[in-house]
Amino acid sequence: MLITPMAKGLGLLLGAMLALTAGVASLALGATEIAPASLFKAFITPDPGSMSHLILRTERLPRAVIAAVVGASLAVAGALMQTLTRNALAAPSVLGINAGAMCFVVVASSFFALRSPLELVWVAFLGALTAALLVALLGRERGGGLSPMRVVLGGVAVTALFVSLAQGLLIIDQEGFESLLLWLAGSVAGRGLEIVTPLLPFFLGAAALCALLVRQLNLLILDDEVVKGLGQRTGRVRLLAGLVVIVLAGCSVALAGMIGFVGLIVPHMVRAMFGRDHRWVLPGCALLGAGLLLAADTLARFLMPPQEVPVGVMTALLGTPFFLHLARRRSLTP
Amino acid sequence: MSRSVVLRVANGRLSLRLEHRTLAVTLLLSLALAASAMISLSLGSQATPPTAVLEALFHPARSDIALIVHEIRLPRIVLAILVGACLGVAGLLLQGLVRNPLASPDVIGITGGASLAAVCFLALGGAALGEAWLPLAALAALAGALSVALLILSLSGRGVTPARLVLIGIGLAAALGAGTTLVLVLAADTTAMQAYVWLTGSLYAAQWREVAGLAPWALVGLPLALALSRRLDVLALGDELATGLGTAVRGTRLALLLLAVALAGSAVAFAGGLSFVGLLAPHIARRLVARGHAGLVPATALIGALIVLHADLLGRIAFLPRDLPAGVFVAGIGAPFFVYLLHRWRT
């Protein structure tokens, strides 16, 4: 673990370099390889006649941006959820937040014919909020606290509820099925930059809120009695942090569908490096989450050429051994 | 203690104590199942009066709907009953095994393993081989279910709490779901929709061949579950007490797990990933039958059969001319029920 602020700063720098490398790889590698020198040329002096410039600007760049934004959001949301629930297994996908957003989006797009991301994102927020409230309700113990085991089981129950609802709808409305299947599996491909821009205010707002909350978040690590003894109240912090989780998870689902386990793995890796101070954990999560999803998406292009593996499948396969390892540990606190 | 009947077989080496209430419930459920099957036989895209159905059943030569009844509706109904009974009892065994009311073949990934194996088989060319190769898909599904069960066991190791076992199963179920999605996305589009419908659990176009494939598993597995029901009662007392009473806990657990896997895997192989039957049926049965697995096994089997039969009937006639997978309706009831169960479950 990195101890001094200097070492932690260097660690963050390293994380940024990793994310940047993964980003460049995501731009350069694929069915058509593009030389790094040509990358810069494509952005500085675009040549309308060049095929590789066209691919880069319309296909690779939006894809890399979406992967980076979604990866960072999911990782930060996961870190916040693990702190809020004091549960090592908490993550937007494990606790059914993604499934809630997905189900509401499926309902909205098949019943109300909503297609634009700006409309869908509000629906996704509503779904994420519903799922979060349900899980919180199911996870409560008699005393009022959240039991780690119950929270995870609640997540499974909520996921089962929303996924089976969405499945039923998709089978009844078969025309919507094919366009949604890739999205259900979690994919960052085939979308333009224009669907990211309307959501940017949400991401920036969430980031600003995180920055404001970061000191109070550290209080949540302490025992409830200690916090009370220090004369602090955590209700408002919890509420705002929950809001950030819902905004980040809802936006991610609206952009890229069901991508699981990023929010589970990354916070644990970051905490192993930086300790539990949120001033370091949150930026670390954002950088490593972006790097991880970019790398997974780049790798997914090469596993079974010529077809691409949906990146959600990649992260689920990467994340399961990790989940099993955590589930076998004696204590479920992070 | 309420009044009961004791059945003794083979000089008392196998005996069952059945309370009067249990017998009455079982009888009523059997009657309900027979009535539902009769209703299901007479409803469809072409509704037929029950008298005509009876005539077609017993005097096929004189009836003009004999073909519909014998070749289309009857196999589908028989398959629904068998699948429901197998899945329900598999859920009952698993819940007794891990002493957790939330365990069921689909929650802990056994259905997921069977589905992944079967979808792989279909996508890798099994579908093109033709229907004669269908038993192979079933074998693949069984192998998948068995590997997942063994993986869960080996990952949980010694001294693991039942709750952890469920957690590990949940993790595996996620990976298996991802694997299945991967195969679906990579497969050609028509196969993908076919496989997706199959995953939800459908009895569409069931024929006698499927019934014949599942029947041996059900006919061996269900009586075996009844024979092992006393072991389940003992296991429910806790590992220490069960050991004290002279039960080989590990061996019994393995035997029960294998039986649950065989029942769930074979049902999934012929009807797809019908979820929640294994969760719903044992809980309803526990409400009706006071105690003891000897009464629970038949009640669960009958309730599971009733659930799948009615879900399939709904799927057949509610959205005519569309024929929707039964799994949609089972999940529609089962998923909220799962949420409700968790809400009530206090350790």
Q: Summed up, what is this model?
A:
Chain A is mainly alpha-helical and 334 residues long. Chain A has helices at residues 5-28, 36-44, 51-85, 97-111, 117-139, 148-172, 175-185, 200-221, 224-229, 235-256, 262-274, 278-300, 311-328. Chain A: The chain crosses the membrane at residues 61-81, 93-114, 120-139, 151-172, 192-214, 239-266, 278-296, 308-327.
Please report the distance between the alpha carbons of the first and last residues of chain B.
Answer: 27 Å
The radius of gyration computed from the alpha-carbon positions of chain B, rounded to a whole number of angstroms, is 20 Å
Q: CATH superfamily assignment of chain B? A: ABC transporter involved in vitamin B12 uptake, BtuC
Q: Remind me, CATH topology of chain A?
A: ABC transporter involved in vitamin B12 uptake, BtuC
By helix and strand content of chain A, what is the structural category?
A: mainly alpha
Low-confidence spans of chain A? none
The CATH class name of chain B reads: Mainly Alpha
Strand content of chain A: under 5%
Oligomeric state of the chains present here? heterodimer
Q: What's the number of extended β-strand segments of chain A? A: 0
**pLDDT averaged residue by residue of chain B:** 81
Low-confidence blocks of residues of chain B: none
Estimated helix fraction of chain A: over 70%
- Look at the structure and give the CATH class of chain A: Mainly Alpha
Structural class of chain B: mainly alpha
Q: How many separate helices of chain B?
A: 14
What is the overall shape of chain A? globular
* Global outline of chain B: globular
**What CATH architecture label of chain A applies?**
Orthogonal Bundle
